Amino acid sequence: MEIPYVVQPRPDTGLYNAKLGIWLFLASEVMLFGALFSSYILLRIGAAPGAWPHGLLNIPIGTVNTLVLITSSITVVMAWASLKLNQFNRFKMFQGITLVCAMLFVCIKSYEYYDKFTHYEVIMTDGMVADGHLVEKSDTHITLKHVAVFHEGEGTAGDHHGEHREEMRIEAAQIRKMENYGPWHNTYLAIYFTLTALHALHVIGGAAVIAYLWGPGSRMWKTDPERFTNRIEISGLFWHFVDLVWIFLFPVLYLL
Amino acid sequence: MSGHSPHEIKASVRRYLLVFGALIVGTAVTVGAYYIDIPSVAMTVALAMLIASVKAFLVAGYFMHLMSERKMIYGILGSTAFFFSVLMYLTVWAHGQAPPGTVYLGASIAAAQHAPAAHPPASH
After folding, report:
1. What are the contacts of B51-57 at 24+ separation with CB within 8 A?
2. What is the pLDDT of residue A153?
3. Of A14, A71, A102, B23, which is least surrounded by CB within 10 A?
4. What architecture does CATH give domain A31-44+55-116+185-255?
């Protein structure tokens, strides 16, 4: 049995099956991210005045990642346009750039995560706090670099104005509490990791589909070019949605 | 997308490049606005969301071809926008529905932070 409207649009809706399917899927994705955005808003407006952290993320790195994703968005649509113009080699080139951008985005995001997981807040027995990146850890002591030292309860994480040291060795006996900037550290980091990890999973999933259509899946161009072009359009719609989500995530998490 | 003739596609490619440029400029403006000292938090949030919305409109309208899509897709997105708005409204509405006398834990922490330090800073 042949499935109808795989390539040609259905007369009443004007859409082929996959296009209707992807838009319904994207609608459900809007609600998924919407629920998490509403969680962010509730946490943000529920925080005590001055308690919401600022300056924890690296803005230049976030900006570069935004530009990487925007670049990948235009290469996706250019790849589709190339197929429409019967230029298969240009399609290969543009989708190749998209894949490089996707990998770059994930690598940069991984670096940001690594930076957070090695960033420690150490509360000492004398009430002082040392905030810096862990470079050495043993049973007897730890060593932090790029350290801000301030008194417990002085400001909020990321914007304290304590004494700054290049490196600091802290004996284990001096440490009362030590915690890295993982999702457990505060509600801001919890929602940051939840939103960005979910988004990164979408980037990886989208890139996997694009990679398949760029590699083995591209054989369909020879047998059924119209259907292959539709597949590229569908994967592109998903990729643009991923870009759309990041357009809101970047200012919300990095700048506000 | 309605038109798929080679001529229409070539015209679309020019539009894509313009949109790409606008998205780069939008990103630069968003980051630039962060470094400008805007006195009102509400104004900062409104500006950032306005720029993000314009960028989102450009991506959805031109890259996703929503400017010239079928009615069925507008219907799907219209209902999504409705439920998304309800979700956001419920969130803000719920925040104002806390029982009288509710004190956020964060508020007590902030109060403690403004109190005099219990331990004098260690000498270095």
Report:
1. B51/A251, B51/B26, B52/A247, B52/A248, B52/A250, B52/A251, B54/B26, B55/A247, B55/B22, B55/B23, B55/B26, B55/B27, B56/A244, B56/A247, B56/A248
2. 73
3. A14
4. Up-down Bundle (1.20)
